[in-house]
Amino acid sequence: MIHPHIADALKVPDLIRLTDGMVLLRFESMKIYSALGAVRDLLDRGVVRPGQTLIDSSSGIYAHALALACHRYGMHCHIVASTTVDATTLAQLEVLGATVEQVKPSENLKLDQQLRVRRVREILADHPDVHWMRQYHDDIHYLGYREIADAVAAELADTLAGRPLTVVGGVGSGASTGGLVTHLRRTDPSVRLVGVQPFGSVTFGSQDHHDPEAIIAGIGSSIVFDNVRHHLYDALHWMDFVHALSGAVALLREHAVFAGLSTGAGYLAATDAARRDPDRLHLVIGADTGHRYVERVFARHAEALDLATLAPVDVSSPEEMTMPWSTMAWNRAACPAHWKEQAA
User: CA 14 from chain center: how many Å?
Assistant: First the structure.
């Protein structure tokens, strides 16, 4: 296939068998699906027009995906970025034509995210023609995952051969694992979803647990994400940075897969899920590559723990969770009403 644009090529994932009961769905950048689908829908419905400026806050991965979507569809892109955006991503954004501004350094991630959203609102007040993509809140970002869900279902048909499927991956904004499973369940409601969260994230109630390495990029948040559909998740894993690092290093060492920190966390969670339920096929979401984690993760590979020695603590409620790794059955429950009030 000859792709009309690089974004159409980069979004296509690879399926890699890790074990008999585990397959990796490896993306160059999973959020390209989300950004392309959202921008295309906005244009088709006339909500935005070619040449208009799209804006959002991002720590890196979505910024790159949105910049590619804007390049693909002839839009302007403005990113209010975290100070943690790596130099490689920042350079790509600028060359792609996106304008980037970074908020001042903050003492914690919650303040950083709040400052970025505040700056977006200031820009919108001064420039009402700019369209805010709201990756953390707008369900439009679920749309792009229908295509990948259909492709995955078709590719896995022979591998499954009657085996039930479990998807394992970072919760993030909710439009990645949630979006994929929403579409997979259209044809198979039995598909299970295991979400992964870092300690310190408000999304599934771990905000009172402090991880000195901070929130794992891409799978947790210190502010409420409105497009997380809690009722899609069957089980949750919370883990600290060192456990996620260990999973990423093990994935590279054992399977030669160079993937991001959220993929490492998902791989570790999937090893536990596969031990508990060996009759199911576990599909691990590899949302991005490991390039932006070289210094923070892979250069520290000597610190990685042996996965064979690790096991989570089973808890019956988020209040019982304990570091460094906990898990519980979520059973597709709704988000407790008081959580958003507490996180506000």
Answer: 17
Contact 36, 57 (CB under 8 A): no
Q: Please report the pLDDT score of residue 162 as a whole number.
A: 85
Cβ pair 236, 214 in contact under 8 A = no
What secondary structure letter does DSSP report for 304? P
pLDDT at 27: 95
Return the CA Rg of the chain: 19
- Reported as a single tens digit per residue, the pLDDT across 250-271 is 999 999 999 999 999 999 999 9
Report residues of the chain scoring pLDDT below 70: 105-110, 214-218, 340-344
CA angle 66, 43, 180 (to 5 degrees): 55
In 3D, which of 107, 53, 47, 54 has the Cα closest to residue 83?
Answer: 107
Prediction pTM value: 0.94
Handedness of CA 95, 98, 99, 105 (dihedral sign): negative
Helices (H), the chain: 6-10, 31-44, 61-73, 87-95, 109-126, 145-160, 177-184, 241-255, 261-276, 337-343
Q: Tokens 């369209």, residue?
A: 131
Using DSSP bridges, classify how beta strands 14-19 and 22-26 pair: parallel, antiparallel or unpaired: antiparallel
Does residue 109 contact residue 214 with C-beta atoms inside 8 Å?
yes
* pLDDT tens digits, 84-106: 788 888 999 999 999 999 887 66
| Contact yes or no for 194/237 (Cβ under 8 A) | yes
CA–CA separation, 172 and 294 (whole Å): 21
- 147 burial (CB, 10 Å; 0-12 / 13-18 / 19+) is middle
- What pLDDT score does 58 carry? 85
Interatomic CA distance for residues 117 and 115, integer angstroms: 6
According to the model, what pLDDT value does residue 344 have? 56
* 55 SS3 class: strand
